[in-house]
Amino acid sequence: MGDEVGRDGDEVAGRLRVRGACGGSGFGCRGCGRVGLWGRGAGRSAHAKRLAGRWGAATRDHEDKLAHFDKMGTSDIEITMSPMPVPNMMESPTTSSIPMTPLQSEFSTSSSSNKEAENTTPSLYTEDGTVDFRGNPAVRATTGGKKTTAILLVNYALMNLAFGGVAVDLVVFLRRVLHQENAEAANNISKWTGTVYIFSLFGAFLSDSYMGRYITCIVFQVIYLVGLVMLSLSSLFFLVVPSKCGDGVGVRPCRPPSQLGIALFYVSTFTAAFGIGGYQPSVATFGADQFDESDATERRSKLAFFSYFYVALNVGSLFSNSFLAFYEDKGMWIKGFWVSTVAVALGLLVFLLGTPYYRHFKPTGNPVTRMVQVFTAAFHKRHIQMPPGEDLHEAAIVTEEDYHAGNTKNPWRLCTVTQVEEVKCVLGMMPIWICTIVYSVEFTQMASTFVEQGTAMDTNLFGRFRVPAASMSVFDITSVLLSVLAYRFVVAPVASRFTSNRDGITDLQRMGSGLVIALLGMLAAAVVEINRRRRVVAMDQPSPMSVLWQAPQYVLIGASEVFMYIGQLDFFSAQMPDGLKCFGSSLCMASISLGNFASMLAVTAVTGITTRRNRRGWITKNLNYGHLELFFLLLVGLSILDFILFVAFAVIYKGTVFKDGGKHISIDI
């Protein structure tokens, strides 16, 4: 049988089809990465060379042709190589696989070619495969770049102004208007915020697979607008009764809401959550799409985009956390909700104004299906022994059964090497991503326990001026804005003198720094709570300790965001294959989502355990009788363990960064 297989292999014409920059979802390139013995597509440049090298199909003559793939744009090129034998490495006639080894050799273009490419005058059109709104190749001078991202940043700031207008005082709304207790309100906030960010996965799926970023952004902004209109109307007619009830001084308590009013409240808030959740990952990736990495100037602008993107988020939140929180604290809930509604309507209008100037990547198909195909094919070929480091590559091996049964065209039995690399890329990042969830548990405390702690402190300043507890998050926002500037113009330049990284430190080092700073923020919150309870005079009254003592914990959490969340956005954007870019952005938001759900579980578990035997517990309706500081210290302990795991995973992680016009280079990060 071995001779028979060898003869069959002699008849194979090694046809390698190479699709250019916008052909699909290649790993590490702006193109489709389908490569196989039977001529099914290919990736770009370095990836195609690596594939050809592993199959042993690239002669010196063909190597010269492959070295020029990057210069051939998006057109399809087909190279037909001379027939060649498939090596017969079967040990016995009973062996069931044709000995196709996974791709192993890797070719690279010469340094002179790279220099020549960098010195070439930029072309009229973008080189990353983007198109304009008519579907034509995007003209570099009239589309994308800073002008379109400026529009997107304004849009994003308005959307987050609206989000903050609802989220910042929602825990107070639940307590004063819906008459919920502290633990219940904190859990409901965690559920709602977690739902917001879990919907980001759904939005990313639609964006990457079917609808594209532009349409996805529009659809979910409309849903967001509908949810806020419903919230404003339900509050007006069913919840905030009498008018301006639920103020901070308790002069006008609200009537208990009806079941219909409660139902409308949850339907409207979760509709808004669905809208903002699906919108966020799409707009983040859509903004990055406006820069062509093949152009050095645009590539540098793209590196700065995520920092300004996070600044826009906090600029919008600054208004809502100050002015809107002030009005809502006086019982003007309906006015605050309508301001948020108008902000979303304006943001949608601004987004539509940029339509003629945006650059678009076409959807690449269902990434989940491609990933499941790899696991299915690998399971069917689990008997194949693979060398270390080549896990899952059996899915790309042509077995004797595939060869004779015609399974070479069945994607559930034979996958491309690019598909395998995509899956391995995602799996490799999962340990890093899981470690960010504990950080999100700490982050979500600003919208729940920090606010509850602030309401139990003296919120009066200068005698008569009263600061809403929710407005203390202004310190968080200010810290974010200042930290972004400090990092870009002070920390990064200084650090780059001692490292080989022009950004100062790597994304993983940046994320690790965020974990440490957040840990210090939780420790500061615990110290404040200990001193707050010590100064209590009357157990049924707030502590005379000023709410301004909360400023350090907000400042530390804000500084940690700059390191953690901007680092996450950069990391997942750079490491994800092109067909999963939105999925990469959504991972950051999914981390926040799971962090909120984990916070809810932690509060529930702590309350259940600490209230046994008729004890008051740690998180009580009146915090003067509780021990909130112990909850904060529990989070500190979890953060220390999480940081140790993060460092361990970061040390062994081998990532892929994309440089020089999309070529992928495996490095240690």
Automatic annotation (TrEMBL):
InterPro entries, per database record: MFS_trans_sf, POT_fam
Annotated stretches, region: Disordered: 90-127
Coiled coil: none
Membrane-topology annotation of the record: Multi-pass membrane protein
Superkingdom of this protein's organism: Eukaryota
Keywords: Membrane, Transmembrane, Transmembrane helix
Primary localisation category: membrane
Keyword Zinc among UniProt keywords: no
GO molecular function, one term: transmembrane transporter activity
Intracellular or extracellular location(s): Membrane
Listed Polar residues bias regions: 91-104
GO CC annotation terms, alphabetical: membrane
Membrane spanning stretches: 150-174, 194-211, 218-240, 260-282, 303-327, 333-353, 474-491, 511-530, 551-569, 589-609, 630-653
Comp. bias regions, Low complexity: 105-114
Family statement: Belongs to the major facilitator superfamily. Proton-dependent oligopeptide transporter (POT/PTR) (TC 2.A.17) family.
Protein name, per record: Protein NRT1/ PTR FAMILY 7.3-like
Source organism: Panicum miliaceum (Proso millet)
